[in-house]
Design brief:
Blueprint: H1 2-24, H2 40-64
Length: 77
């Protein structure tokens, strides 16, 4: 099931990059050099999302998680 969703994601990403390459490239204002690179913003979004997920997991692991005996232990001991 996960492989199917991954395949659908990859195929849709490729289709969107191809559509961007054929339909959008050359039109509009290219204020920055990377604005003219096909698929840059799709790749930027995917990398940004993966970094946010990794950062959230890191915060959850080191800041939010407690040990199993957190409520059972006595801090006076």
């Amino acid at each position: 099931m996960i492989r199917r969703w991954l395949a659908v994601f990859i195929v849709s990403l490729v289709i969107l990059i191809l559509l961007e390459f054929f339909l959008v490239m050359g039109h509009g204002h290219n204020a920055f050099p990377w604005s003219g690179v096909a698929g840059f913003f799709a790749l930027f979004g995917v990398i940004g999302c993966l970094l946010l997920i990794a950062f959230a997991k890191l915060i959850g692991h080191y800041w939010l998680q407690r040990k199993e005996d957190y409520y059972d232990r006595n801090d006076d001991e």
